[in-house]
Amino acid sequence: MKRWLTRKYIIRALLLSIAAGLLAVLGLLGYFYGVIVPRVPAIDAVVDYQPKIPLRIYTADNVLIGEFGEEHRDFLAIEKVPAMMKNAVLAIEDTRFYSHGGVDWIRAGGAVRANLRGGFREGASTITMQVARNFFLTRDKKLGRKADEIALAFKIEAALKKDKILELYMNQIFLGRRSYGFSSAAQAYFGKRLDQLSIAEMAMLAGVPRDPVSNNPAVNPRNAKKRQMIVLRRMRELGYLDDSQYASAREEPIRIAAKRQEFDTHAEYVAELARQAVFEQYKDEAYTRGISVYTTILKAEQEAAYDSLRRNVLAYDQRHGYRGPESFIDLPSDPQERADEIREELRKRPVSDGLAATVVLEASAKLVAVETMDGERIDITGAGLRLVAPALASGAKAAIKLRPGAVVRIAQDRVKEKDKDKEAKTWSIVQLPQVQAGFVAIDSATGAYHALVGGFDYGLNQYNHVTQAWRQPGSAIKPFVYSAALEKGFSPGTRILDEALSMPSGAGGATWSPQNDDGKFDGEVSMRRALVHSKNVPTVRLLRAIEVGYGHEYLGKFGFDLARHPKNLTMSLGTGAVTPLQLAGAYAVFANGGFSVKPYLIAKITDGNGTVLLETPAPAVADETLRVIDQRNAFMVDSMLRDVTRSGTAAGATRALGRNDLAGKTGTTSDAFDGWFAGYAGNVVGVAWMGYDDPRSLGGREFGATLAMPIWVDYMRAALDKRPAKERPVPEGVLREDDDWIYAEYAGSSEFKTIDMNELPALPDDGAQPGEPGEAGEPGQAPAPAAPQHQQQPQFNHGAESQAGG
After folding, report:
1. Nearest CA to 596 among 624, 615, 617, 576?
2. Using an 8 Å Cβ cutoff, are 737 and 752 in contact?
């Protein structure tokens, strides 16, 4: 009887427990569907997914040169995701993804047991739940948030197919290094496309989502490796890998890219120009809607321009001596403390392509040992010490003397080994240059940019010296004065007196006496010879003969800003102000036969769906409505500019390139504050400039031919490689007279045969005295102090121009 009563009570207790459990479950379900489900947000963001794709800039040949946006993301449709990448993710994140309805109850049960034993450590989130959290919730491990996550997961599963959910996950998940999605992370960590990754690399990426900080292979490689091993074991257990694949992936060394994004071509200044243009049009949407900008830049020519500019700036810097170490630190005696101190110091140093910051460990006249950020010791000897030889001398001043603890830059050189068809790598001590430079090349017929480098290093100085720097052009302006003279009836054969000239300056009775750079005068010279050898006094006489007002107005035909050029005779010597881009457009007029061109950078803009938002129509070539000078004028100036490169101040260009179709002009301003070369061949116009942001002399023996022309030559060597040389046909209305060209209508006339050969003519009554202070300064006086670089005003040019480099 007692046993029966005991059994009865047990059954009753069980039934009551089951009833209570059912009531609890019903209560939870009621609460879940009555309270939680209604409060969770709508899932429009996943149903109509609009990923935040950054703005990307490309060359004309489809090479990525810039990316802008807070999130680095490459949206990749699920069918384009490699199968092994999907397997790796499913293996570690959600094995039963394709069989559960949004919640994996088997895994959840295991997580509950683990949590009851030791606190809330396991979340058992499925991929669908992670999508819900990433789009709508936080990562806090709270029961309320987990309930919302489950409710959202059910909504998502009801609305989307499994492949679409996996696609959302693989494109939205954060993976460190500002990367969202596996495609972007492949570039960030390995510098590869997702389909180029090895199994080992895919497994490492698959291990990152659980903790993008602890499992980040760039920051915590040991943790990332442990996580990778877990992924690989799980993939083998599930049959995704065979034993051979598993063994190979385990042993494969992982090489992480040094930076998050390495662009294929250095075109930072180009990318920034394009970014500014797109932002002006689309504002903040520019950075999220997947806009792609296709520029007119050509990859090979951009690389040639970048390499040439940096190489020649460094060459200039080497010529002008060592300024001393960037800083000094005290080196601890303990090896580990020393390594830590070196790394800490080098982290502070600005990064510049190819110029690595290091710390000197030991120094003597024959050997300097340095340590890099990675702890590598490099010994530098021989020619690699040439720059710092004075700093290694026993009597060197303390400020420049190399000693242990000195912070110096090193660069790697590649030289041919003797008697071998191989290259040896050697190191040299260098320094970050203080001088700046700019280079731009455009198509002379259309104005399309081919290359643009706005400075030595965008990371160190974002100021674009091609588009923003207004500098004196020096003798690079002379061809436009000579072009004006042709329209007045003079010809390349016109004889000009090259003798001392002294004129009132308009400043209290003072006089102005322009000089040739060598202080010598040649008597009678032809107009051609005066330009070819950059003679200053004949050029001043020529402008005087055609009248300053006419010459000043004539500059406007070429796109120059007339307000920036003085309306006096110093204008002929380049005392105004131009930008390299403006000068390139002006020289294009001579190159293309007399037509104005408007330089342009952007060829096409598309949105994230590939829809064309803007397309620049192909500019008309040789459109007579755009003609600004006579074809005959362009031909004659071209013939003189070709002689500049054959026998004049730029003869080194023809010797270096071995072509007979080069045309151009050097320019060196007063006291060599600016060095220029502007020239063209094969329908490509290039302008190179070098100078200091706070203008000062580049050196008494430096000229346009030594500063800027080498940049132009090295670029043109690549740009003209497959462009045959072309001779310009003689246009109608041009005749030969006295062994030179002349307009047919002036043939036989003696009116324009000479300038100032008998006596100095009266000053032209055009309101401009030869030495009146213009915007560029006061003739005969030193330049005024420089303004800050973004407000740089043109400096006065005294007219110094070297026959060797002018």
Report:
1. 624
2. no
Which member of 67, 93, 167, 801 is catalytic? 93
> Is residue 798 classed as helix, strand or coil in its secondary structure?
coil
Three-state secondary-structure class, residue 7: helix
Measured on CA atoms in the order 27, 33, 37, 38, is the torsion positive or negative? negative
β-partners of residue 689 are 438, 676
Residue matched to tokens 């290091």: 358
Check pLDDT > 70 for residue 594. Answer: yes
**Which residue in the block uniquely carries the two structure tokens 């116009």?**
685
In this structure, the number of other CB atoms found within 10 A of the CB of residue 706 comes to 24
Residue 475 falls in the annotated catalytic set: yes
- Whole-angstrom Cα distance, residue 459 to residue 452? 16
CB 107 within 8 A of CB 228: no
Q: For residue 233, is it left (φ>0), alpha (ψ between -120 and 50) or beta?
A: alpha
> Which of 508, 569, 496 lies closest to 533 in space, CA to CA?
496
Compute the residue count for the chain: 806
Lowest mean pLDDT among 84-88, 262-266, 421-425, 717-721: 421-425
Q: Residue 84: which of 214, 253, 4, 197 has the closest Cα?
A: 197
* Cβ atoms of residues 682 and 720 within 8 Å: yes
Q: How far is CA 185 from CA 175, 181, 260, 583, in A?
A: 6, 6, 9, 43
User: Exactly one of 179, 475, 505, 526 is catalytic; which is it?
Assistant: 475
SS3 content of the chain, % helix, strand, coil (to 5): 40, 15, 40
Would you state the structure tokens that stand for residue 729, as one six-digit string? 């046909």
Q: Which residues touch 333 (CB under 8 Å, ≥6 apart)? A: none
HSE-up of 74 (CA within 13 Å, CB side)? 18
What's the rounded Cα separation, in Å, for the pair 517 and 495?
A: 20
Q: List, for residues 95-121, the tens digit of each pLDDT value.
A: 999 998 878 877 766 555 655 555 444
Mean pLDDT along residues 649-671 = 96
| Two tokens, residue 511 | 């006089």
Tokens of 413: 């050189």
Give DSSP secondary structure letters for 432-481: ----EEEEEEEETTT-BEEEEE-SS-TTT----TTTT--B--GGGGHHHH
Question: Do residues 664 and 653 lie in contact, with contact meaning Cβ atoms separated by under 8 Å?
Answer: yes
Rounded to the nearest integer, the mean pLDDT of the chain is 86
CA dist., res. 439 & res. 452, Å (int): 6
* Range name among 60-64, 121-125, 647-651 with the lowest pLDDT average: 121-125
Least confident segment among 350-354, 363-367, 442-446, 770-774 = 770-774
Longest dimension (CA), the chain: 150
Q: Mean pLDDT throughout 570-587?
A: 97
Nearest to 628 by CA among 487, 435, 739: 487
Rounded to whole angstroms, the Cα distance separating 535 from 526 reads: 11
**Alpha-helical regions (H) of 99-140:** 105-118, 127-136
Half-sphere exposure of 492 (CA within 13 A, CB side): 27
Report the distance separating Cα 568 and Cα 460, nearest Å: 39
Residue recorded with tokens 């570690």: 92
**Residue 705 belongs to what H/E stretch?**
helix 704-707
pLDDT band for position 589 (cuts 50, 70, 90): very high
- Helix, coil or strand: residue 678: strand
Element (H, E) at 428: strand 423-430
Answer yes or no: are the C-beta atoms of 229 and 206 closer than 8 Å. Answer: no
Consecutive H or E run containing 668: strand 663-668
Is 285 designated active site? no
What pLDDT shows up at residue 101? 82
Residue 687 and residue 768: Cα distance in Å, rounded? 31
C-beta neighbour count of 42 within 10 angstroms? 10
Q: How far apart are CA 660 and CA 638, in angstroms?
A: 12
pLDDT on residue 191 = 86
